[in-house]
Write a structure and sequence with these properties.
Blueprint lengths: L1 E5 L3 H12 L3 E5 L3 H8 L10 H10 L3 E4 L2 H6 L3 E4 L15 H13 L4 E5 L7 H12 L5 E5 L9 H6 L3 E5 L3 H10 L1 H4 L4 E5 L1 H32 L3 H9 L20 H14 L5 H24 L8 E5 L15 H10 L3 E5 L4 H7 L5 E3 L3 H5 L4 E4 L11 H7 L4 E4 L6 H6 L3 E3 L25
Parallel strand pairs: 1-2, 1-4, 2-3, 4-5, 5-6, 7-8, 9-10, 9-12, 10-11, 12-13, 13-14
Helix pairs in contact: 1-3, 5-6, 10-12, 10-13, 12-13, 13-14
Length: about 450
């Protein structure tokens, strides 16, 4: 089976590379000639664990290629994936379909034999039916079907998610399309994945509802964490106790500085706007968006409060700039709110991220910023340390060394990756999320579950 993937962004590149790993012949297409040239040299446009190795292996095996020639790739393909960007409109918050529609028009001109056109891009409800109309108008004699096949890839674990998904959702309107999708995903389904067929509209909706539901869990547990700080409850115990209920589960119940990335912010906004447009407003979705925006501002307040009410003239070491570990993606990350706010408040910042420095430097600027070679370099001479992203290399810092590098033993852990008793033993003033601060010598520290408290 020959496959063409239009778009070599995050979704398109992962999709094409992983399908080639399953033995299909895949051509990944992009109009950006420089990007394609780099991919042909195995220079990755994104950081994603395991992706570079798969590209090398499958190019060597002759199953994976990169090209700017859309017409040639489409005319030879049995299945064509549309995996182009759908940026959020600044006007109404809905995804813009300029690139999707343009891809559909180009595909229509190049179709020869029967072809299944699969939409991987996240698109509003009704888009796939609109694509059928666009293609049919341009090429009335085309023999084709369209399928809606939303992606559920976590950045930082995208290869694993594609290879071993919990389910594969496909919106179709013909048995022929259903058969092609079944054949395509047979290698994955043999490993236990469930293939779920539904309508275009339901598949499109599933994508948005999934991400909004997960964003809602994050937003809610963050609010619960604030409640725990006020009442003396421990958010770790609360989240664990709640997550043990099988009706709820434990995933996405870790508090932090708010969600970010390319999906949750954009998809929650899109669902909000689509719901309004359909005359069925989603008040819960609107509350999730508002809560997450406030969350990032609250993290700035938390840092300032920990610094005795002012960061003016102080130097702050910040570890982690990407919105989550395992990726170089900065989109909607907490750092894009926290860093500028601290700069505005008069602080100097020493920054480090294992893989996000290049992207971060494009968006975070100013003379008050110092870009450091590693985490310890960032701490050198700083008044305090803020952990903003939970990269693994930050989980096992040499605490004795940290204390010698910092001017003051103040650590603000916005990801709860350390045990409070460990920080207390090393003499730190340790501020975390959803747990009362630990300051050496204070008798009110509850230690009922301290020995069982595990880092996230």
């Amino acid at each position: 089976m020959q496959i063409a993937v239009i778009g070599t962004g995050y979704v398109g590149l992962v999709t094409g590379v992983c399908l080639s790993e399953f033995g299909f012949r895949v051509t990944c297409i992009d109009k950006d000639g420089d990007k394609i040239a780099k991919l042909q040299q195995q220079i990755m446009p994104i950081f994603e664990q395991g992706l570079e190795k798969l590209v090398a292996n499958n190019r060597k095996a002759g199953r994976l290629s990169f090209s700017v020639d859309l017409a040639a790739a489409v005319s030879a393909a049995d299945i064509v994936f549309i995996a182009v960007g759908t940026p959020q409109s600044e006007v109404d918050g809905l995804p813009e379909l300029e690139y999707v529609n343009a891809a559909a028009k180009e595909i229509a001109k190049s179709l020869k034999d029967y072809t299944l056109i699969v939409t991987k891009s996240t698109v509003p409800v009704g888009t796939n039916r609109a694509l059928i109309k666009i293609i049919s108008e341009i090429n009335p004699n085309a023999d084709f079907d369209v399928a809606s096949n939303p992606e559920f890839l976590r950045e930082g674990a995208a290869v694993e998610d594609f290879m071993s998904p919990e389910r594969i959702v496909a919106g179709v309107d013909s048995k022929r399309a259903m058969g092609m999708i079944s054949k395509l995903y047979e290698p994955i389904c043999l490993n236990g994945a469930k293939l779920f067929f539904t309508t275009f509209e339901s598949a499109e909706t599933i994508k948005y509802v999934t991400n909004t539901m997960l964003a809602m869990r994050i937003g809610f547990i963050n609010e619960v964490a604030d409640f725990c700080e006020k009442t003396g409850a421990n958010i770790r115990d609360v989240a664990k106790g709640v997550g043990m209920d099988q009706r709820i589960g434990e995933r996405f119940l870790q508090p932090g500085p708010g969600y970010g990335g390319s999906c949750f912010p954009k998809d929650t906004m899109a669902l909000q706007q689509m719901a309004r447009g359909a005359g069925s407003p989603s008040l819960i979705t609107e509350a999730v968006i508002a809560s997450n925006n406030l969350r990032k501002e609250h993290m700035v307040e938390k840092i300032v409060q920990a610094a005795d009410g002012s960061v003016a003239g102080k130097t702050i070491a910040i570890l982690g700039l990407t919105f989550k570990p395992g990726t170089d993606d900065m989109r909607e990350g907490a750092s894009l709110v926290v860093v500028p706010a601290l700069q505005k408040a008069g602080a100097s910042l020493r920054l480090y991220d294992p893989h996000g420095m290049k992207e971060a430097a494009k968006q975070l600027t100013g003379e008050s910023l110092t870009w450091c070679k590693d985490g310890y370099d960032a701490m050198e001479g700083a008044d305090m340390l803020v952990i903003l992203t939970e990269w693994n290399e930050f989980r096992h810092l040499e605490l004795k060394k940290v204390k010698t590098l910092l001017k003051h033993p103040l650590v603000i852990d916005l990801r709860n990756i350390y045990k409070r008793q460990d920080m207390m033993k090393h003499g730190f003033h340790y501020v975390s999320i959803g747990r009362q601060d630990v300051i050496p010598g204070q008798p009110w520290i509850a230690d009922l579950n301290l020995e069982d408290e595990q880092a996230a």
